[in-house]
Amino acid sequence: MLALNVEVGELANETRCFKYWSQKGPSDRDVILEEYVDGIHFILSLGLDFGYRFNNESKNSRSVSTLTKGFHLVYECIELFKQSKSKDDYMKLMNSYLALGEHLSFSTNEVVRAYLSKNEENHNRQQSGY
To answer: What element of type H or E holds 90?
Structure first.
């Protein structure tokens, strides 16, 4: 759960959506996408740990009005799932994260390609003792 919180924070940092004091824009789209799929990895890992599998039937199209509100929602869902560990709250967590990706304008195909690429990199890191 802590790793997921950190990854979501890294994603927020790359979007810079909360840095109202800064004139610097967000990181490149590819950097943000890579951070986003790191979060997908940790959410899927939690699902495996608890025996939950997300499917399209569980998808709840829940949009967020701003990116910052989307991050708040994801953090709230992480905490909710941390406390309950219920399947329903896991689905809410995944849906909130997917809504964040939609707000970032990532297509399903982009996310899948980036996830598979990052997953391969993660396996190579594990084999080399990263």
So the answer is: helix 87-103
